Every structure is written in C-alpha cells, then in structure tokens.
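fwd from M.: "can u put these together and see what the complex looks like"

so here's what she sent:
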Amino acid sequence: MIHEQNGKFPAVCPLDCPDTCGLLLHKEEGKIVKVTGNPEHPITKGAICNKVRNMAERLYHPERILYPMRRIGAKGEGKFERISWEEAIEEIASRFTELIREHGPESIMPYSFYGNMGALSVDGMDRRFFHRLGSTRLEQGICNAAGNVGWKYTMGFMGGTSPEDTAKAKLFIVWGQNTVSTNMHAWSIIEKARKQGAKLVVIDVHRNRTGERADWFIPLHPGTDAALALGMMHVLFERGLVNQEFLTQYTIGHEELREHVKQYTPDKVSAITGVPAEHIVQLACMYGETSPAFIQIGNGLQHHDNGGMNVRAIVCLPALTGQWLVEGGGAIKSNGDYSKFNGAALARPDLRPNPNARVVSMNQLGEVLLALDPPIKGMFVYCSNPAVVAPDTEKVEQGLQREDLFTVVHDLFLTDTAKYADIVLPSTSTFENTDLYRSYWHHYIQLQEPVIPPQGESKSNMEVFKLLAQAMGFEEKAFQDTEEDMVRQALGHSANPYIERITLEGLKEHRFLKLNMEHQQRYLDTLPTPSGKIELYSQQMAEAGLPPLPTYVPLIEGYDGERRPGKGAPYPLMFISPPNHSFLNSTFANVDKLMKLEKEPMLQIHPEDARARAISDGDEVLVWNDRGEFQVTAQVTEKMLPGTVVSQGLWWEQEGKRQRANALTPERLSDMGNGATFFSTVVEVKRQWRS
Ligand SMILES: Nc1nc2c(c(=O)[nH]1)N[C@H]1C(S)=C(S)[C@@H](COP(=O)(O)OP(=O)(O)OC[C@H]3O[C@@H](n4cnc5c(=O)[nH]c(N)nc54)[C@H](O)[C@@H]3O)O[C@H]1N2
Ligand SMILES: Nc1nc2c(c(=O)[nH]1)N[C@H]1C(S)=C(S)[C@@H](COP(=O)(O)OP(=O)(O)OC[C@H]3O[C@@H](n4cnc5c(=O)[nH]c(N)nc54)[C@H](O)[C@@H]3O)O[C@H]1N2
Ligand code: SF4
Ligand SMILES: [Mo]
C-alpha cells in the first residue's frame, strides 16, 4: 500500500472513540487526498464522523512537526532549533542516564494517554521501555477509571450488551453520554430502532445534541445520578416491577437493597436531583414495563467526586428487571474486556527491576511535578496533551516551567505541552505505521498497515522507544521485536477466550475479524465477581471503605438540589466542560475547518443565572474560581437547570486569551479508581468588556 501512488486503501481510525471505524484512505500521487468510511466494515459500515473526514488536513498540516528540535527559548515560549535524530536520542539517553545515576530511575516518569489507540504504540514498546528503565509508574485514570471500577464491583467484567443486539431495544436510556457526537454508530442504531417505534430518554445535566433529539430529555443537577437510579429502584420494588426469579438466581444482596432503597422516595430524590417526583415514577415505570430496555452509560456522569457510585447505581437497574437476559436489553458502558489483548506480553512488566516503584496519578500532574518528594526530574510525554487536558492546568503549567525538569514531548504538533519541552520529537500518524486496534464498544479487531511513508523525519512510538532502549544499552530481546512479533504476542497465549481465533494472518487477509462471542452466552454464569453473581451488595466495596449498597453520596465540590449555596457564596455555579462535536479531546483544536465549525469557546448559562449577573447573549465573560480563570463568550440558554454552566470542547491556549477550561478543574480523585473529577467544579461568572 505504501508504495502505490493511487488507489483506495483500508485503514483504522486511531482515535480514542468507541466506534474504532474502518476507514478508506484515497491516495492520489502518493498523497492521501480523502478519508472515507470503509463500507465493508461490519458495524461502522462506511459512515465516519466529520472530524476524520477532515483528517487529511491534519496529516499534511503546515504546522506538523517534521524533525526533532531542541528548546532555545524559555519554557513555554515555543522557540526551538532543528537537531538530528542522533543528537536527540543521544541527549535524552545521556540525560536519563545521568538522572538515574544521581536520583534513581524513579526520578523519571512517562506521561501518556490514548492519542493513538494502537496497542503497539501505547501499550507496547513504550511500556517495555519504562518498565526496564524502572521509572515511576503512571496511573491512567483520566478517562473512564471511576465508572469502570463502579461497574466492575457490580458485574466483575467490563463488558455488556453487544451493540448489534441493541437494535432490538424498545427503550433506550442514554445516561450521561452525548451519543450523537461521541459514539455515532450507537446513534445510528438508536435511530433505526426508533423507526420501529423505540423511545429514547436522555438523562443529562445539559441538553446536548443527543438530548435535543430525544423523545424525553430529563435534566438533573450534576453528580446526582446515583440518587435518580435509587429513586427508580424504589419505585421498581414498590410497584412489583422487579424480576424476582432473576434476582434470586443471578444476584446477591437483593433483599438488603429492597430495604435500603425504601429511603429514596420520589420526593426525596426529586429534592436532590431537581427531577420532578412524578417524572421519577414515570421513568421507573417506563423502564420496568418496557422490554427490551437498554441503558447506554456515558463517561460524563463519572467525571465526578461520586463518579464510580453513579455508574455502580445505574448498572444495578438491569439486574432488578432481569433485562440482562433479554436480547437487546442490559447496558453498555465499555465493552473493553471482550477484546482485551495479552497485556503482559505487550508491556512486559517482568522487565522492571523495581516492581514496587511508586505510582502517581495522571490526574494530579501539577501536584506531582510541584510537590512530589523525591521529585520528578525527567518526564517523557507522548499521545497526550496534559497542558490542555489534565485537571488544574495552571498548576500543570507551573510544574512544566520548572527549570530543573527535563521534558521530552513526542507528538505530531507543537501542542501547548510541547512548548515546554526541552526536546521535541516528531511523531508519525497511524497511517504511517503498523499497529493493532480493538474497540471498547464493538467486537472487531483491526490491523493497520502503513499507507503512506513517514512524513518528514517523523518516527512511530515503537521506533522511538526501540532507539532509546538501544541508546540506554537495554539488551533484552523484547527490544528487538518487530511490529509483527508484537501483534502475535498481543493475540497469543491470552487468558481472554474471546480473542482465541484472531491471528495476524487472518487480519492481514481480512483487515477486521470478529471476536469469538459464543462465550457471551455463558456471561451471567461466569461473572468474575467474588460471588460469581451480580453484586447488588458488594463486600469488596465495604472492604474498600465504600458503602456496600448503591448509595447517593453528595459531591465534595458541588451542589445538589438540597444543598444549593447561600447568598454570597463565592462560587455558586457548577461548571461542566465536556467534549465538543468537532474536536477529539484537544486533537483537531488546531485544524482551521473544525475550529471554524466550533467558532470559539462558549459558556452556556441559564437565563436566570445570566440575569442575576447582567450577562447577555454574546457577552465576553470571565469564569473563575480559586484555581484559575477562563475567558469565553456567553450563550444564554435553557439547556441546563439554573445553577449549572457548560463549556464544551478543549481548546488550545491563544495569544492574549485564557481559554483552557481545565484552568478551573480540580486534581481531586474520584470515589473509585482514582478517576478524574473534571465536572465537580464550582465557579463564579462575570461580564467582562471586550478590550
Ligand atoms: N466528538 C468527540 N467525540 C469523542 C470525544 C471528543 O472529545 N469529541 N472524546 C472521546 C473520549 S476520550 C471519551 S471519554 C468519550 C466521552 O464521551 P461521553 O461518554 O459522551 O462523555 P462526555 O462527553 O464527557 O459527557 C457526556 C455528557 O455527560 C454530561 N454530564 C456531566 N456531568 C453529568 C452528571 O453528573 N450526570 C449526567 N447524567 N450527565 C452529566 C455532560 O453534560 C455531557 O453532555 O467520547 C469520545 N468521543
Ligand atoms: N475539562 C475536561 N478535561 C478533559 C475531559 C473533559 O471532558 N473535560 N476529558 C478527559 C478525557 S475523557 C480524556 S480521554 C483526556 C484525553 O486527553 P489526551 O489523551 O491528552 O487527548 P488529546 O488531547 O487528543 O491528545 C492526544 C495527543 O496525542 C498526539 N498523538 C496522536 N497520535 C500519536 C502517536 O502515534 N504518537 C505520539 N507520540 N503522539 C500522538 C496528538 O497529536 C495529541 O496531541 O482528556 C481529559 N480531559
Ligand atoms: S473519531 Fe470515532 S466516529 Fe470518527 S472516524 Fe474515528 S472512530 Fe469513527
Ligand atoms: Mo476519554
């Protein structure tokens, strides 16, 4: 493919998105001129989002980094000089060697996430390198950690309903997800089912694009979802809408739960959530009486202090009604465990000389860089842009500014983070590499092979970490492995029966192969919880110091309907900053066409809250709290309940304008999984005249 000048070539979307679409790259004279969906892909079926239709603009963007650079200006200034790869690798290896000699290997840390979801790129050679080095370890809880742990306490396994089956559902509850923007093929399924009469309920703090299209949009106060789910359980038990046979056979703790939810009366839950009591009853009855009823759980509701518990409470609902046994019923948060690769074979934790090396949370990067003792002295950032995406970016920035911190950033662009690097390395795009992809939503494994040669002098993560391993004198065979070796290792000898029939040869021939989903038939009999059943009561949670039954726990920073701030409270509004439609986290926030579609950072504010502050639509406003400031344009709208303001999208900083939502967000960790708590943030807003 790489040598052919013209034609259409299959590829995989590498972005952190549940859909993991099959793509077709259209080449003319050796260049990708167009990106479309691959119609042969069994579930994404040729449809892709507008972001990736514009991927060629990103690939050949004039600002793409094409050679290694060394910083010559101040940290953050963005002044660099070109150097050779030999110099760059030599400098990194000698600085790392020096740091290890003087301060030990734990003075160095990686910082990465899933800017590219390729297993070889982010769960492979990179991991081997940092394990062998003995670096401080990074706990990657920025995305789905809290909710996944909440789900796992209940179900034991990150896998729910098969997406194809949900087409049969008669009721969809989309809970804290903006499906239209963030999981478009799930949206296609919903739309199809609605043509057959299915109904869509959206539960969110904000009438997003998905809420706009719902049959019934239910707005609630942030972080009160567990209360709503408990209110529904109250009604389900009280009205005899539970499936007793299912509860007895497949769950533990249903008797305790029945007693426990008596306190969550519709009136009490209404006072907490802001949802009228009669709507709570109506929703519960609708859920209890419709079959198949399917719940799509998003990531939004788990970026809270109580995020794990929100998911934990919701995922109990299909167990009460027995919907897990109904084809098309049940729930999905992530289906990632079905497609799990052999992680140890890829990452080789056995190479680590110090298995007990310290662990830091990626959600506390500012604190880690500023206060960890002994300090971090060297950091290697790849596949992530923490200066924009991490909580409390003011603190992150201060950390990145430390003169005694040696920072390397490997990326395709000079991101806000890369501006602080001592050494910047150019990264290939996935279309220039071989890599292996799975989805955390559908059941297809896909192989990516290079369609175009590396742009400029760019190198893949795999190549960079192999070069560094060599320069550091790491002689293990693990650092000689080729891409194909690693694909075989990822697919081989796994404890995961679902991937048993997938091979490199098969993938080369077919591009995408379906997991062996026959095992799913025994799903409820093989749940890996301690009891082997759905745990409505969880002893594991009790042991972790959490309420063992699903429980509403108010936010540490934030308000529910019962705890509204008094007059004069410094920060009376809750600030929610979810993704927008045209960017993928901070990726694409430098692509003109997509920036134009999003116009500029906006703050959606309720007319009541706007009036109280003399703010009109289109005013430039300042949003602030103790952590930082954020300058945006006000959009007065009734899309939220009063008391909540929303700004969608993660924008890069701009000359003279503070436009990072994360300047306001906390580094606090969630109740479970040390997850991020982006949305448990309080702020004040005022009008600011344009200067
Ligand atoms: N277009 C686009 N697609 C993306 C991404 C992107 O940036 N842009 N990012 C990708 C990634 S990494 C992820 S993790 C997913 C995230 O995508 P989703 O799973 O859709 O999650 P979010 O968009 O974070 O939040 C979804 C909704 O949750 C709402 N929300 C916030 N707090 C609460 C709450 O307390 N209760 C309830 N019920 N709702 C709440 C927000 O208002 C938002 O409308 O999308 C992926 N896909
Ligand atoms: N306020 C607020 N903050 C959030 C969120 C939110 O909803 N609100 N969402 C959070 C969530 S869910 C997530 S997942 C995180 C995501 O945060 P990140 O993982 O940091 O995602 P991106 O901003 O897309 O940055 C990915 C970077 O990887 C680079 N990259 C792409 N491919 C490669 C490659 O092959 N090699 C290398 N070396 N680099 C590559 C891209 O150019 C890009 O700069 O953000 C979190 N931050
Ligand atoms: S970002 Fe998501 S929807 Fe868009 S092409 Fe990639 S996988 Fe498909
Ligand atoms: Mo994410």
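replying to her w this: The longest helix spans residues 85-103.
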